[in-house]
Amino acid sequence: xxxxxxxLHRARARLEQAKxxxxxxxxxxxxxxxxxxxxxxxxxxxxxxxxxxxxxxALQRGEDPSQAVAAVREKNxxxxxxxxxxxxxxxxxxxxxxxHARVRQVRxxxxxxxxxxxxxxxxxxxxxxxxx
Length: 132
Fold this sequence. Notes:
single chain; 132 residues; mainly alpha; 76% helix
């Protein structure tokens, strides 16, 4: 039995509203956390930039990127540890910066493994996979 267009339209509208509210809440939490700990914003920005920069550099030079990947991986792991420490020290509730942020970290780690890049077991903060 198919749903009527009106029911589907209302359901989609509710989903869009819930998504917008969640995004607004996540943005407010991020703004609060960044205001309290500006280093968090720096870390998040740096984590977003590093992989793109790495690949661009490796491709421009035509070199095997494995050494550069290893160096960036270590740097990113250090940044992720620092980020975790800040969040713990700031006594933020679990998932305060959005459950999706943790899921993205887990997915990144899995993507690295799929790309045949060796990623240590602790590439994701301890317990992250359990919470997602």
